[in-house]
Amino acid sequence: MTATGLMLPSRAAEPRSVSRLAASAAAVDGGVMSNPEVLAWLGRRRREHAQRVERVPFAALRDWGFDEQTGDLRHASGRFFSVHGLRVRSGFGPVSAWSQPIIRQPEIGLLGIALRDFGGVPHLLMQAKPEPGNVNGVQLSPTVQATKSNYLRVHGGSAVPYMKLFRRPEPGSVVADVLQSEQGSWFLHKRNRNMIVEVGPEAEAGEDFVWLTLGQVNALLRQDNLVNMDARTVLSCLPDWRQEDTRRALHPDREIRSWITRRRAEHEVEVVPIGLAETVGWHRTADEVAHEQALYFKVVAVDVSSHRREVPSWSQPLLEPHGTGIVALFIRRVDGVPHALLRARAEPGFLDVVELGPTVQCVPENYTHLPAADQPPYLTEALARADDARYDVVLSEEGGRFRNAQSRYLIIEVESDLPTVSDDFRWVTPCQLDELLRYSHHVNVQARTLVAALRAL
């Protein structure tokens, strides 16, 4: 199987758009800035954006506090986000009922990438952005990455650059515009508006921004902890620029849509918001909210200073997971057509019960206390085949809400006779995935990262 054979365009994509993106993907040596210049620029940005992030007790948080009645952790303004409790009953997975803390952020954030032609080749405007939860400080992010509270300047800081390009885009300039979820195990009903907008010469790159071809971004996606989660989800919303026969999918489109609807109807997930103080199995100390068995994650507090952000210093809670995640996508050809094995996942924070996730998505340490029958499907196979993976990169999750959250992302080619272990799994073509990505709440954030990675091979 060749890497180019894995990529399929959206059937609805305009031929000119597909050919232009293909030209940008082929421009691996860059256009506006060469690859050595990009790495030198990124090194300068990391030195310039050095920030101090210090763990502190909850009592040291500025403008944050625990509600006396519910125990919920909130900002004094009532904006940004809060940490609540959640009681869950589910027919999905090895545990049928539990309580947990969860982040509630009802605001719809905006993630946008500006697209501009240079010499007839589309370039993406990417940002070197520091986040307090990143393991390495600065990572490559979208042109705009902002919550509503941030771009409305609730924090009293400076304006978000390039925001007007996305809030009022020119007619005919929008390439993609869709609401997408974030981690359904850590966020309650969190959504971001993912946008790609074509712009003209009026958009110039500031010192923290750089114009890169799609080929350059794809190359950077193959490096650990360089392209952040928000950039990856927006990249997945681009129309796929590679073509292959789409008429021989293992499952026709109508069957895939019916399967998703059926899994949503059949999976029972009851979610009841509760006070953080009511979460059974969790305890709060002076400096963390943690599980009694040291599993899953903990909520901690940090104090941050960064003279290059919208505000120079602040403090906030962060969710810190235990262990590195394994996120794996199995791929194979069926009658010559590439397919990926997706799982219909029910997570308590999803708006519509089920979204399509990767073949494997878990933190293995969270399952060591369970019997073999309750281990995540295909995890053993993924770990056994990891050394032969087509894609094997450690990537950070959202550094604005999670501390040192990393997952090992794998794309693994498997033989055609791999058994499907349950009705929660289906082989889906990249073209079918591309079509589903045009709509909200169909493909989860981990699978969207692997869609971007698959195109980058």
TrEMBL record:
Coiled coil: none annotated. Residues 37-238, 254-454 form the dTDP-4-dehydro-6-deoxy-alpha-D-glucopyranose 2,3-dehydratase domain. The keyword rRNA-binding does not apply. It comes from the Bacteria. Keywords: Lyase. GO terms for molecular function: lyase activity. It is an enzyme of class 4 (lyase). The keyword Lipoprotein does not apply. Gene3D superfamilies: EvaA sugar 2,3-dehydratase subunit (3.90.79.40). Its EC number is 4.2.1.159. This is Oxidase EvaA. It comes from Streptomyces rapamycinicus.
